[in-house]
Write a structure and sequence with these properties.
This protein is α+β, with helices and mostly antiparallel strands. It contains three helices and five strands. Helix 1 crosses helix 2.
Length: 106
């Protein structure tokens, strides 16, 4: 996964080794205890972080962000995908593994 090249069908999940703390402004600071990496998110990034729950894909997260603002910029979809990609690349989130169903006896 590089840049914004994420599979829109993938469902991001939070890394349980990441802790979040409210920052001085409306954002949060994330710390990945596995790697020692820290990341500061502004209020919109915090909204995206809060929407990652293992049930919503990037399209649903984008729709929720769009619904949160009265006049969102045209780049919201790209911005959400970009943040999700960074969170994944830095190990703050992962993705649910897709399983295929197999039939017994075949």
């Amino acid at each position: 996964m590089v840049g914004n090249d994420i599979d829109l069908g993938d469902v991001p999940v939070l890394n349980p080794a990441v802790i979040s703390r409210e920052g001085l402004s409306e954002g949060v600071v994330l710390v990945n205890c596995d790697t020692g990496t820290a990341l500061s998110l502004n209020s919109t990034g915090t909204l995206v972080w809060d929407l990652i729950n293992g049930k919503r894909g990037p399209l649903e997260i984008t729709a929720a962000v769009l619904g949160h603002f009265q006049d969102p910029p045209d780049t919201v979809g790209e911005d959400v995908r970009s943040l999700i990609a960074v969170l994944a690349e830095e190990g703050f989130i992962g993705y649910e593994m897709k399983t295929t169903k197999t039939r017994k006896g075949r």
